[in-house]
Design brief:
The protein has 139 residues and is mainly alpha-helical. It is built from 7 helices and no strands.
Amino acid sequence: MATSLGYTPPPPPDTAARDDLDDLVRALHESGLLRALAGGARSYPVLLSQLLRTVDASTVRSAIALAGALRDARPEQAERLAAGLRDARHAAGEVAAAPAEGPLGLLRRLRDPDTRRGISAALAAVAAVGASLGPADRD
């Protein structure tokens, strides 16, 4: 009589990582990001050369300095300012499409507290920018 072999088949490999990768690729494909990423990777040399032609060290330093102006802003202030800018863009579009107001109409607008608040804020901003542009030896 033959003796039985002591062979047990190996356990199936763990495919969890492969399944996760397949899910990721499927999601990227369905959203269109896979095509965009592939196109970006193919055109990387062209994009990099274009970026290096247009951006120099002084541009990067200027962008960092301007971004520094936002560093102290609280998120609530930034949200209020952004909402005000959206409203201003809308209001300016309406006023630009209408006939121009005369001097008396403009003076009537000065009675509105929101108008005066906006003018005061704009003048304060202009004064701060003007002060920063003044002579460096000034106190």
